Amino acid sequence: MSEKLQKVLARAGHGSRREMEALITEGRVSVDGKVAVLGDRVESNVVIRIDGHTVKTKPADELICRVLAYHKPEGEMCTRHDPEGRPTVFDRLPPLSEGRWIAVGRLDVNTSGLLLFTTDGELANRLMHPSHEVEREYAVRVFGEINEAMLQRLRRGVQLEDGVAKFNKIKPAGGEGLNQWIHVTLTEGRNREVRRLWESQDVQVSRLMRIRYGDVKLDRSVPRGGWQELKLAEVNYLRSLVGMQSETESKVDVHADSKANRHKQAAQIRRAVKRHKEQQSAGGRTRTTASRRRPSTRNSGTGQ
Questions:
Q1: Other Cβ atoms closer than 10 A to 258
Q2: Which of 20, 44, 94, 137 could form a disulfide linkage to 6, CB 3.0–4.6 angstroms apart?
Q3: pTM of the model
Q4: Cβ neighbours of residue 9 under 8 Å, at least 6 residues apart?
């Protein structure tokens, strides 16, 4: 049976369905030597290429869906490659023998906490789509005076530049004065939505951390920059949320909770964090050297 081209590419782990649609629109995908167009459907025996490179595709029932829960630190970019050389959320992830990790949505560079990654582009696409209304919960530290009238407005909905937005739930989480923590829940992922909602009430967000996606919570045992692969039951919970069939296999060892396995994962994370710091340090030295070589623009007439 034929399937939409972008769906086949997403399932193969080359990005979300939306990202694949963009590649097709840009003319970077071919099917049996012919440039593909959006709307093309393909059979299983065709040769698909992206930028001239052959894509390995498999039927849906031969792929194992994997999901990582990553503890994103502040300062990391939610992109594969940053032109300014800043650290990205993909830098520390464990390598894959096939496919690649696809981020389920984004977090702002100054936002930390739970970020899901999956090898299944269709799952990523559905989890991000607002029609499925998957809850996201954030811990927010705010500066400013908060009153009940303000909270009621945020629950009912306020007008932002891209439409009406609101929090589904708001509950105090400790602190007072200039150090108040509040937990908020919403079911969509617009750009900087949590921050913009508070700013609409003249309240400044000083810290923002995502702590839950659906029923998947950020495990306190996972350090910043660390990850935890979800077990089969957790993966199937996410798939059921968005109307996808359950998986029958998992890459997670059935003895994943064993002491030896926890030590192995901790060692992997430590190596990834160390490698990341070394890359940052090397990148910093490179940028410093480049800036020293850059000619001065002082008195060049350039406007500031």
A1: 11
A2: 20
A3: 0.74
A4: 15, 20, 23, 29, 48, 50, 55, 57, 121
Give me the torsion for CA of 24, 62, 272, 270, rounded to 10°: 150
Q: Give the distance, in angstroms, between the CA of residue 30 and the centroid of all CA atoms in the same chain.
A: 28
- Please, which pLDDT band fits residue 177 given cuts at 50, 70 and 90? low
Distance, CA of 280 to CA of 107 (rounded, Å): 20
- Both tokens of 302, joined, read 């350039």
pLDDT in tens, 247-304: 887 877 655 555 566 666 667 666 766 666 665 566 555 444 444 444 333 333 334 4
Whole-angstrom distance, CA of residue 209 vs CA of residue 270: 22
Contact 155, 201 (CB under 8 A): no
Q: Which of 108, 162, 202, 253 is catalytic?
A: 108
Q: How far apart are CA 120 and CA 103, in angstroms?
A: 10
Q: Is 108 a catalytic residue?
A: yes
CA dihedral 276, 109, 101, 259 (to 10 degrees): 60
The structure tokens listed for 108 are 């702002």
